[in-house]
Amino acid sequence: MTEPTAAPPHGRRNTAVLVMSNLLGGIGVASGAAVGALLAEHLGGTSMGGLAQAASVLGAAVAAVPLAGTAARRGRRLALSWGYGLATVGGLLIVTAAVLDQALLFLAAMALYGVANAANLQSRYAAADNASAATRARTMAIVVWATTVGSVAGPNLAAPGAALGRAFGVPGLSGPYLFAIAGYVLAGLVVGLFYRDPRPASAPAGTRDVAETPATGTGAPATSTEAPATSTGAPAATVPPEERPATALGALAWAWRHGRARFAVVTMAVAHAVMIMVMVMTPLHMQHGGMSLELVGIVISLHVLGMFALSPVFGWLADSWGAVRTAVAGLALQATAVVLGFVAAVAADGAGADAEAHAAATVVTAAALVLLGLGWSASVIATSALLAGVGETRVRVPLQGACDALMNYAGAGAAALAGPVLAFGGFQAVNITGAILLVPAAIAFATRRRVRRGATLAAR
């Protein structure tokens, strides 16, 4: 395979389309997230309040693999359009559940609603299809950055959405989902009408590969031919089984045998789990310490800005400094964040009635949350670039979907674990657990050069 010297045809146009669809989809995700727990509590009581986000995350995790499979067989345009279409159905069912006062229907609808998050995540890989290897990470990062707008604008639509809902005769808490439905419909239309698959979805955007050996272990470079039917270019009926797109489990097994791919998969899941673990418990920790909701909101907003606002910077670093190094830097930022979070928790517990000490602890907590978001951004963008550079064409797209699914499952597991950990040992224990979760990524980094016989690695 040869290194491309320029972006593929329609590359700039496709990237602009993905930025717009991610912005619209991000508004939809954030609009519902702002009121999801409140609507769940209204329909099913306080004990159900946390299940709305869990259902949405699980929906994104379950959808990641079939969306990637569709992208591998039929192209990114169809996969992303279907993702936003399913999320639109979820939004409509949420409003229906609110009107009918049906809690179980609401949770099922939230799972469909979460498919939009899977589509937003996979749009970064679509961006990589439209870039040369030299600009792959920064192109992906620009698409991720568009989520910043949605994350900031979405929650601010809660009050107007409630008024809109009442105007349409539906419960006020379901009103923001009307904005989400509009966002998903527009995102799907933008992709469906204006995106053009530059090549079969699993064809490489470049050759700066994670591991340049085929799954057969012969040491020969992977090859493919241009044709629309499959990733190998031959009609599906004539493609040998070993050349068809891998299954999700097969792709993960392939990654396990290739050190850099293994590092990317483990690090993405770990970075997301650590971020979720600490982030979801921070508001409770702050409220237990007497902090106001306004202050909690400011700290979480700073965290979200850390997650997305500097993503183009980390994309540039991954392209120019190296994706592995940038991912490791992200892990180091997260390690620093959990240390600061632990220190802030100890200081808050020992502050007693000292208002100045509590204020200082809050500042340190805010700094920890910003670093946590920055570390997540650096790690996820860099590892996404590594996965976009996998040289085995039949594995690349299925591995991307499997990795996104693992990331969401890890986040859901961390969210479920965080509550009991906080109850058992306070915010100190939450940060200690976050530090422990970083260990698998450190091991994956240390062992990334250990690959099966016959494998070669990119120098980068």
From TrEMBL:
Major facilitator superfamily (MFS) profile domain location: 14-452
Membrane topology: Multi-pass membrane protein
Transmembrane regions listed in the UniProt entry: 16-39, 51-72, 79-97, 103-121, 142-165, 177-195, 263-284, 296-317, 329-348, 360-390, 402-423, 429-447
Pfam families noted in UniProt: MFS_1 (PF07690)
Region Disordered, annotated ranges: 203-242
SUPFAM superfamilies attached to this UniProt entry: MFS general substrate transporter
Molecular function terms, GO-annotated: transmembrane transporter activity
Low complexity bias locations: 212-240
Designated name of the protein: MFS transporter
Source organism of this protein record: Myceligenerans xiligouense
